[in-house]
Amino acid sequence: MEASLIMHYQPSYHFRKRRLALILILALLFSLTLLFTSRPAHAAFILVTTTNDEQNNNGLCSLREAIINANADDQSGSTDCVAGSGADTISFSGVSGTIVLNSLLPDLTTAITINGGGITVSGNNAVPVFAVEPDGNVALSGLTITGGRGTFTGGGIANSGTLTVSNCTFSGNANGNQEVGVIGGGAITNWTGGTLTISDSTFSGNAAGDSLIGGGAIANLGGGTLTISGTFNPFALRGEERQLVYDIIDRMAEFEQKNKSGR
């Protein structure tokens, strides 16, 4: 009679306990991997440390470099600024005075907040200062925007996205000139589909060309949404600028009526 030995392996209590602990650890690691790979990017705080309008690597972060990094969520503007990440905030650290632009700043194409802290940005009487694209969701505060020059854009800012302006000053901006008719506002043009909200801001000495569609301070064109609140007061503007602000309302109504009547 053949005898066979059958061995039954029974894991010990301590082995089962270790195996269960290993399974739990693996499950936790898997959950953490899902969490960190699927979570949205956290916003970055980008500090501008120079008033020079530049793009290079010299240890100083410029406004131009900060905007490029914020738009692209990387350091393609310069490694002198931290990488953008999601809805970024650009602030100024240890600097004051005026940034004189050598050329138009990069368009603002994402969610960006710029806290000026009293900084002035000048278009040097040559270029507009900011342009907000349709996907841009931009908040500006504590800035003085001056010396912007545009044609069919807006002297200071051209907005096609969502723009919130608070505690800012717009002075000495122009869209075109007084002899050549153009479309747009001396300080800000809010284009079709744009949403513009202004509060506690001052407009002075801005101008637009003598055109069918123009506004010395603000032109709200093509069904853009415009909201003004706070201390902004058109009657505080110089006479010709005030007239251009109100003239845009009358002219747009007249223009729309002519289109409806086919004349």
The major beta sheet can be summarized as: 7 strands, parallel
Helix content: 10-25%
Distance between the termini: 116 Å
Silhouette: elongated
Structure summary, number of beta strands: 21
How is the largest sheet built, in terms of strand order? 1-2-4-7-11-16-21
What percentage of the residues does DSSP assign to strands (E)? 25-35%
Q: Number of helical runs?
A: 3
> Please, what is the oligomeric state?
single chain
Structural class: alpha/beta
Question: What is the H/E string?
Answer: HEHEEEEEEEEEEEEEEEEEEEEH
The average pLDDT value, as a whole number, equals 79
Low-confidence stretches: 1-9, 36-40, 235-263
C-alpha Rg, in Å?
Answer: 28 Å
Protein traits:
263 residues, alpha/beta, seven-stranded parallel sheet, five-stranded parallel sheet, disordered C terminus
Short description:
The protein is of the alpha/beta class. The chain contains three helices and 21 strands. The strands form five sheets. A seven-stranded parallel beta sheet has the order 1-2-4-7-11-16-21, with helices on one face.
